[in-house]
Amino acid sequence: MVLELFLICSAVLVGAVMKGLNGFGYAVIATSILSFFLPASEAVVVVIIPLMAAQLDLVFELDSSSFKRCFKRFYPYIFSAMAGTFLGVLMLNRVSERFVAAGLGVFIILFSVSRTGYGDKISEIISDKCFEEKTVFKTVLGFISGLIFGSTNIGVQVVAYLESLELDRELFIGVLAMFFLFISGLRVVMSFTLGLYSSGNMLLISALAALPGLAGIAIGQRMAGFIDEDRLEKITLLMLFLVGLRLLSKAFIV
Question: For residue 135, what is the enclosing H or E element?
């Protein structure tokens, strides 16, 4: 248990520091590092609680009327995201470890590419064609977002969709809070029920890892002014791309 606690807290700390420095990459980096020491499916679920803890501040920015307004406007997106998340967590439990590793590798590579100049052009095309606020788009995009988030921890697609709608801050924060907190709570319950945490101790370790996660974000934010952001981002994206390739090799090479 001591070794597992050290490895998980270390991975979460690194991901959190990078989040503080770059403004992105917490879940992707922490999950990627853990996938080298744990089964990919368990690496995904172990990071859920630290991610939830990092988003708790969103709740304190809203009141009940704000939540009602967000829910009324985006309930198709939230409900379909819950359905997608449900399926995503089931996939972690039902499919082979190689499939999970391959899927995680593919999405990490796509994530790293999406942050480059080439990715920006592709994102613009996708947002122009698909990112609309009609009910059918909310439903489809919510399901896809939940499926990806539930099976990989990657939530950049949620932020990209909401940013494309140019929402006011209250709506933006409200939808993020409902997605990352409420849906993550569903993931924890499902993961525990399905036995994706290898033991009760692993669930406890995951909860404890939230503390270095919060500390890491604060540390990264303090360090941000002393490091060249562009160079750091390029190094981070290259590292993630290589990790994605490593996961693919882990999935397909015996």
Answer: helix 135-152
Query: pLDDT tens for residues 48-93?
Result: 999 999 888 877 777 777 778 888 888 899 999 999 999 999 988 8
Residue 40's SS3 state is: helix
Residue whose tokens read 């698909």: 130
Domain that holds residue 36: 2-252
Nearest to 112, CA basis, from 251, 245, 14, 253: 245
Query: Which H or E element spans position 153?
Result: none
The two structure tokens encoding residue 189: 């319950």
Nearest to residue 206, comparing CAs of 218, 197, 214?
197
The structural domain count of the chain equals: 1
The phi, psi pair for 27, rounded to 5°, reads: -65, -45
Rounded Cα–Cα distance for residues 251 and 139 (Å): 32
Tokens 């709740």 map to which residue?
59
